[in-house]
Specification:
This protein has 182 residues and is mostly helical. The protein has six helices and four strands; from the N terminus they run αββββααααα. A two-stranded antiparallel sheet has the order 1-2. A two-stranded antiparallel sheet has the order 3-4. α2 packs antiparallel against α3, α2 packs parallel to α4 and α3 packs antiparallel against α4.
């Protein structure tokens, strides 16, 4: 524990030197592992922190077992909210504008940090795929009885990879860039 306390104090000192402020109210720590954290409180001098089940870092939710359920739920919530808002104005938009809005308001959330999704459960991949399918239905106006048609031909028309393959593509692209110093 003294090593953690020393590291925390060094970070705080570095931030002070660089005119940054550590927000004590937002400081959290997460004990990652398949168990309940044995640490009840982390005493860091003037600050005492309790472990949390999930923590947000750069807009990405991590849970203590790294199942990514919290991240997928947050992405789903944001995408469905955006889809609902887009559906209110969808009838007044052109096809090209709908595609741009879907890229900017839905797919960007699915694609953010999606290389971390490489070991997602099938249930979570299906959640993300359902979001993408609903976005395609919005673009083509597939509601009611026309909403029951297979979505794959529409994904191909838009050049959208299914979520599972989007994840593999992003991971492959990162590896390619690392190998080739790009």
């Amino acid at each position: 524990m003294s090593a953690v306390k020393c590291c925390f104090l060094e970070i705080k000192q570095w931030m002070t030197v660089n005119f940054l402020k550590l927000n004590d109210d937002k400081t959290e720590f997460i004990d990652i592992g398949p168990y309940i954290s044995p640490i009840q409180n982390l005493d860091l001098g003037e600050l005492c922190i309790s472990p949390v089940e999930k923590a947000k870092n750069l807009g990405f939710w991590f849970d203590h077992q790294l199942k990514l359920d919290a991240q997928i739920n947050a992405v789903s919530q944001m995408c469905y909210l955006n889809q609902r808002n887009l559906s209110r104005i969808g009838s007044k938009l052109s096809h090209e504008l709908k595609v741009q809005l879907v890229h900017g308001n839905i797919l960007c959330f699915i694609d953010y940090c999606n290389s971390v999704y490489s070991k997602l459960t099938e249930r979570n991949i299906q959640k993300l795929q359902k979001i993408q399918n609903n976005a395609v239905r919005f673009i083509y106006g597939l509601y009611g009885k026309s909403g029951r048609v297979p979505i794959t031909p529409y994904l191909k028309k838009l050049h959208f990879l299914p979520v599972r393959f989007r994840i593999k593509f992003k991971l492959s692209l990162l590896v390619f860039k690392c190998i080739n110093d790009l």
